[in-house]
Automatic annotation (TrEMBL):
The keyword Cytoplasm does not apply. ATP binds at K103. InterPro entries: CDPK_Ser/Thr_kinases, Kinase-like_dom_sf, Prot_kinase_dom, Protein_kinase_ATP_BS. GO terms for molecular function: ATP binding; protein serine/threonine kinase activity. It comes from Zostera marina (Eelgrass). Residues 1-18 have a biased composition (Polar residues). The keyword Thylakoid does not apply. This is Protein kinase domain-containing protein. Residues 74-193 form the Protein kinase domain. Keywords: ATP-binding, Kinase, Nucleotide-binding, Serine/threonine-protein kinase, Transferase. Residues 1-25 are annotated as: Disordered.
């Protein structure tokens, strides 16, 4: 029986690993990130600075930020709230998988609706000095790009106090006492900073 010689192409193809490899975790996260970056675009664009020049002439609002590209650290989810100055998103830390809320304030809304820049700075400054307490939202970090200011903070699920009161209509005396006690504790912590 005669031996068949292999061509160099045949040899290299047999020693190569299969092209159908399993995706690494990083590749899967990147794929997921791209899908989530599209989610909610109709509500407010969250893009990195290389994709748009809107508000490029707008001054920097915050002096001490964690970075300029929030999407390098967080994956944005659904919109969980809206206010005069911004949109609040459900967001997930890509590395720890911890879930937070992110208040994204469009610099266009600052220009168009005269949202006071000093109020944004004050909000961040106050959140930075507040102590950790069960009933006080804790600031995680801030980001600022040419389009938005992003404030990442604890996610509080369950609605606000007004919604709770309206949903139950009447509270028991015990419920009212617990609510007042919590409010007094938070005010006490705030005034002893």
């Amino acid at each position: 029986m005669e031996k068949q010689s292999k061509t160099p192409q045949d040899v290299s193809s047999t020693n190569q690993p299969s092209l159908k490899r399993k995706k690494t975790n990083e590749q899967m996260i990147l794929k997921i990130d791209k899908k989530f970056q599209k989610f909610g675009k109709e509500d407010q664009d969250i893009e990195d600075s290389s994709t748009s020049l809107i508000c490029s002439d707008f001054p920097t609002i915050l002096s001490d930020v964690a970075g300029h590209d929030i999407t390098s650290r967080y994956v944005f989810g659904k919109v969980i709230g809206r206010g005069d100055s911004g949109v609040i998103y459900h967001c997930t830390d890509k590395f720890s998988r911890d879930v937070y809320a992110c208040k994204s304030i469009s610099k266009n809304s600052i220009k168009e609706h005269s949202v006071d820049i000093e109020n944004i700075r004050r909000e961040v400054r106050i959140m930075k000095i507040l102590p950790h307490h069960l009933n006080i939202v804790t600031l995680k970090e801030t980001y600022e790009d040419h389009r938005n200011v992003h404030i990442v903070m604890d996610l509080c699920e369950g609605g606000d106090l007004c919604d709770t009161i309206l949903a139950k209509y009447l509270h028991s005396e015990k419920d009212a006492a617990l609510i007042i006690k919590t409010i007094v504790e938070v005010v006490q912590v705030r005034f002893f900073i």
